[in-house]
Amino acid sequence: MASVGALFRRDRLTGQVAVGLVGVLGIAAAVYGVGVASATYRIADVGAWLSAKSKGLVVHVNGPAGKVDGKTGVIPQMRGHNIKIVQDGATVLLVDLDTGVVSRLDPSQLNVSGSRPLGRGIQVLAGSGKAYTVDSVKGVVQQIDPVGLAPVGASAALPPILGQAGIDAQGSLWVPVSQKGEVSAFKDGRLQPPVKVGAPGDGLALTIAAGDPVVTDSTAATATVVKPSGAHLTVSLPTTVRQAGRGGVLAPAHTEGKIVPLLVPGTGSLVTVDTGTGRYSSTRLAMPKHRYRPPQMLGAKVYIPDETAGALIVYDSAANRFQRPIPVTGRPAPLDVFVRDGLLWANDPSGPHAVVIDRQGAHRGIDKYKDRVAGGPRRHPIPLPGDGDAPPPQRPPSASPPPPRPGEPPAPPSNVSVTPGSGTMRVDFQPSQGEGIIGYLLKDLPAGLSAAPAAITAGAGPFTFTVAGGACDREYRFRVAVRYKDSRGRTREGVSAPSDPARPCVTPGAPTGLTAQATAGGARLSWTPPPGTGPAAYKLTWDGPVPGSKTVSATSVTLSEIWTNGSYTFEVAAVNGAGTGPGATRAANLTGPATRYPVERNGNSNGYVRSVADANSNSTVATMNDNNGEMVTVHCQERGAGYTHPRDSNLTGDMYAKITYSGKIGYVIGYLVNTPGDWTDFAGVPVWKCR
Description:
Layout: H1 4-7, H2 25-32, E1 47-52, E2 57-62, E3 67-71, E4 83-88, E5 91-96, E6 101-106, E7 111-117, E8 122-127, E9 130-135, E10 140-144, E11 151-157, E12 166-167, E13 173-177, E14 182-187, E15 190-191, E16 195-196, E17 204-209, E18 212-217, E19 222-226, E20 232-236, E21 254-255, E22 259-264, E23 269-274, E24 280-284, E25 296-298, E26 301-306, E27 311-316, E28 321-327, E29 336-340, E30 343-347, E31 353-357, E32 363-367, E33 414-420, E34 424-430, E35 437-443, E36 450-452, E37 456-457, E38 464-468, E39 479-485, E40 491-495, E41 512-519, E42 522-528, E43 537-543, E44 548-552, E45 556-559, E46 566-576, E47 579-580, E48 584-590, E49 595-598, E50 606-610, E51 620-625, E52 631-644, E53 652-661, E54 664-669
């Protein structure tokens, strides 16, 4: 049989899409050896497709039952290849990462109905009814038809190298552009205005959380949430995030809820960010030198794929407790872990094992090699686990340290986590195990800060200290000590490892009551601060005839740089050490106030008021005669047609004043009105520029 490389040409439209479609149903059957199904199969609505590369299989698993309920026939060209499955409703795409061939799986027929060679290294995404490809190296993004895999609309180019992309709830593709420190949206063949999320060259990781893009900047230790309204929320994360190393922080591609878990491999920091409120909590893992994949969130629990142990590390964020790891393979192996339809799936692509977990944490093991399911013709018995294909999974050791033996000192407290609050920091910990425990004390409390309670008695619980005081622009670390009696009755202490750094403040909320009006000094803005602790500053941005930005400390400001009439959109966001809160916006049509100035250079002569800014036109609406010194109302200034006085070459220019004279509104050449400054240029406030 001809190889895939021989059958598929590598020509790519914009570096991505092959010129011709290779493979409708019949061709796919010839290439892959997949039989045509004779019936429409019913597979579970709540389930997922999983790969098994050693057999060249793709199987569908019923989530609640943990059983295989459908599979493709054996696909020889996929045997042993790394296959990524992209699934969104009825769209199921098989991406051969080794060859770059993308195939569509028809769930109703359980067969491959079409293929295209898109090229190795191309990202293929599907979500919200749309499908896209991203060429990270060439910087090209393209929408494709999820059925025929052909291009849809125009492609677009971004500065490479591009990061892992995602699709939001509206079907827009979002792509991190590290070179620019931006994230860009692409939809309907057009790039949308980019969103600044960091400095050029920063390490960026994208997560689609509850349908919204969230970009984690490992270099700056921030997370930016982009809302559909265009408002942004930026959270300052613990500075330990900057120690993530060259690969950056590990972040999931998407989460079903608003909580995003982040893992810092270099430090063991596990940070969970609430993208709705901007609050976070952090704890520390004992991190051996294992290979980890991005953590996933389901309910209140974080699941961290440990590929060295072939298991999932489980952290219950509500109880601040690590639970016993869940074995997947029991051996070092790559793990494909994702959340879909309220279930978490952990798959061993190279073997028969997989695990499905529900929101309550209950898990079921899956045998992908079960043969009595719908699909291609049965050829021979498929070996089950233990038959020599792969070893059965072994239970990994508990995440909690073993209790000390009699006579040994208690282990120090563990899982010291810190949650910032408004003027407070909550320090939670897991109590020690062992004999002779008296209680617990909070260590490393700086002067000026207080902790409640002062001590926690053994067995009393809750095991929480609340720290009050401190500065929002400073980070604090804490340790917890266990006090105990040793075998000789002496009082001793065992001290935990330090916590992640935290600030006694949270990302501020949105200001309210934003107003904007035109004044003689410029655009006047005012607003009401968000509730809670006072932010350190406010970030103003505006768009319109004169765009710009500024940071101020008060709740009102006059922007002297805005003195042009027109429609503006203003946004104000509160800023403190914890981050930048969501902005309040206001659209306003601003027209500068009218001012009065005397007429000049019109003695014994006529000055003409015209309907347009053109001294050469025949559009006179009023005539001023010998009226030097008369006060006229000036509305604004505008550049118009050039004019030179017939008897005085010094009176040359194109500046006009819009005035009211004798009840008529029109334009006069600028030298006829004594506005501030040189009449050949704009005066600036208080005289605004016309629309």
